[in-house]
TrEMBL record:
Organism the protein comes from: Chryseobacterium suipulveris
Residue ranges of every copy of the RCK C-terminal domain listed in the record: 290-374
Lineage: Bacteria, Pseudomonadati, Bacteroidota, Flavobacteriia, Flavobacteriales
InterPro entries attached to this UniProt entry: AAE_transporter (IPR050144), RCK_C (IPR006037), RCK_C_sf (IPR036721), YidE_YbjL (IPR006512)
Superkingdom of origin organism: Bacteria
Annotated protein name in UniProt: Transporter
Transmembrane spans: 16-35, 42-61, 73-92, 104-123, 169-193, 384-404, 410-431, 443-464, 476-497, 542-561
Protein family membership: Belongs to the AAE transporter (TC 2.A.81) family.
Length: 562
């Protein structure tokens, strides 16, 4: 009676489309369940899908070859594109501060891992595709594995007689080693270096003083006769401070105005200032003194409101072009983009999804909303035209053949690097034509996690077919030993150089370690173990460039040594 259910849920050698989909759903569902279970402070999250896929593949579950390729590649594309949109803004802005130093350390670690892999290739006699799989697993780098498989397919298309081993086998054997190796290194180095998380947090905060500070607002009263009768433009130019005077109230009056640059300051005027803490303190010290006036914050004459950029008439236009103050008597005091506060300069270009904090009358705000948009509902709705347009550009970029002399076939960025680079550029410049960078956080997390689940399920089930036999056949214990060299040698050197020569805060160094090995499980562990979110920031700073280099290293090793 239930033969149909048995045929649907139990493994078969030659599955139908429906049976293939069921296998994928089983791998993802059971993987997510086990990934939520805690092993001490460790949770594997979506990484557990890889292991459940291996188990299901070992016990006979299969996926049709065509469906397998599609699920694996499409999942990888979604994952790296989501990562690019998520970390793109902080990635580019970080290079003005510590990002360059962090990325030099992280990329050097990637290259050192490639050198160790080459040395093992020369010493062990293993095929390069096996070692690239071992390398990708040892550093928990899924896009690198995807790039290696794409490169092998390209070589097979040009040379059909060539036979390659599957790098997924080495990846699957050494992946747990990579996860636990990074976590173990964080624990060991914290103990060995006698790191106190609270002390590191204090040092981190001290190092951030006067750098990357958020915008703030302060009230002041004009008392210095030197500035009486001068215009706001003259005063700000003379003092050389990047601040915005959002409100002004004359002494003895309750009327609050949004001042123009040509408005003159009078004795005992009360001003509302917006800018960096240090700049505001210096401005107040020279022009007057702090004020406790309450009327300046009154909304009787002017109101404060947040407006979202959602209309084409405002996207990719700068504030000077919109000229909101002269046209509508409305002042922009702050711009919020990708979690950052930006001081509104006339040359600032607006992106789709930007949030503007404005001050003006109800009538002025209503008029400006017609130009800016301010449709929060529109931001919640997924823009599939923009999303799939960006994915298409990523696939096209990843498919462009790059001819390098002496290599057997042209190198391609592939489905891992192509979409990632496009996503980074789109997030940096706000979009290309109708393709914009804004996707709400919930949608990005869904796309990223859904993509990696599809990839892990497909790769795991495929690798699970004959996994035990392959472990015995290829002497998996030796592969684990080779993998440990790739895991620990670059990692230990990174800690020594980062801590003792570059003087990097250990909380940040833990994030760089996790980011260099593109390991979200290690990142999750480090934030809990060190009781700090600081590792997340440095992880995001190095992840994109590290991913691109891991993709290139994996592809080049296959091309050069195969």
């Amino acid at each position: 009676m239930f033969e149909w259910l048995k045929a649907l849920l139990f493994p078969v050698e030659n599955p139908t489309v429906t049976q293939s989909i069921v296998a994928i759903m089983l791998a993802i569902g059971t993987g997510i369940f086990f990934g939520r279970l805690k092993l001490g402070k460790i949770t594997f999250g979506v990484s557990a899908v890889m292991f459940t896929g291996l188990i299901l593949g070992h016990f006979g579950y299969r996926i049709q070859p065509g469906i397998l390729d599609f699920i694996r590649d499409f999942g990888l594309i979604l994952f790296v594109y989501g990562i690019g949109l998520q970390v793109g803004p902080s990635f580019f802005s970080s290079f003005r501060n510590e990002g360059l130093k962090f990325n030099i350390l992280a990329v050097s670690t990637v290259l050192l891992g490639g050198v160790v892999t080459i040395v093992l290739y020369k010493l062990t006699g293993l095929k390069i595709e096996d070692l690239v799989g071992i390398m990708s697993g040892s550093v928990t780098n899924t896009p690198g594995l995807g790039a290696a498989k794409n490169t092998i397919e390209e070589i097979k298309n040009s040379f059909p007689d060539r036979v390659f081993n599957d790098p997924t086998i080495g990846y699957a054997i050494t992946y747990p080693l990579g996860v636990f190796g990074i976590i173990g290194t964080i624990i060991f180095t914290k103990f060995l270096l006698r790191i106190n998380s609270d002390e590191e947090m204090k040092k981190f905060r001290m190092s951030k003083i006067n750098r990357e500070l958020p915008l703030t607002h302060k009230k002041m009263r004009v008392t210095n006769p030197e500035f009486f009768g001068k215009t706001i433009h003259q005063v700000t130019k003379e003092l050389g401070k990047e601040i915005v005077i959002s409100r002004l109230k004359h002494s003895g009056s309750e009327a609050v105005k949004s001042p123009t640059l040509d408005m003159e300051l009078r004795e005992r005027d009360v001003l509302m200032l917006v800018g960096l803490e240090k700049d505001l303190a210096e401005f107040i010290a020279k022009v007057g003194r702090p004020s406790t006036d309450q009327f300046i914050e009154s909304d009787s004459d002017v109101r404060k409101k947040n407006i979202f950029v959602t209309k084409e008439s405002a996207i990719h236009k700068n504030l000077a072009e919109l000229d909101l103050f002269n046209t509508y008597d409305l002042k922009v005091t702050r711009v919020f983009r990708a979690g950052r506060e930006i001081l509104p300069r006339p040359s600032l270009e607006l992106f789709y999804g930007d949030k503007l904090r404005v001050i003006g009358s109800d009538e002025a705000i209503a008029e400006v909303e017609k130009i800016i948009g301010n449709s929060e509902k529109k931001l919640l709705e997924p823009d599939f035209l923009s999303l799939f347009g960006g994915l298409l550009l990523g696939v096209i970029l990843g498919s462009i053949p790059i001819v390098i002399p002496s290599l057997p076939v042209p190198i391609k960025l592939g489905f891992a690097a192509g979409p990632l680079i496009v996503a980074l550029l789109i997030s940096r410049y706000g979009g290309i034509s109708f393709i914009h960078s804004y996707i709400n956080n919930g949608a990005i997390y869904f796309m990223k996690d859904f993509g990696i689940c599809l990839f892990f399920a497909a790769v795991g089930i495929h690798a699970g077919d004959g996994f035990y036999e392959n472990f015995v056949k290829y002497n998996g214990w030796n592969w684990l030993l080779f993998g440990s060299a790739i895991t620990f040698i670059p990692l230990i050197i990174m800690v020594i150089i980062g801590r003792f020569f570059m003087k990097i805060n250990f909380l940040q160094l833990a994030g760089i370690m996790s980011g260099s090995y593109t390991d979200p499980a290690a990142l999750s562990f480090s934030t809990n173990y060190l009781d700090s979110d600081i590792p997340i920031q440095s992880y995001a700073q190095v992840y994109p460039l590290v991913t691109i280099f891991r993709i290139f290293v994996a592809s080049l090793l296959i091309l050069i040594f195969s």
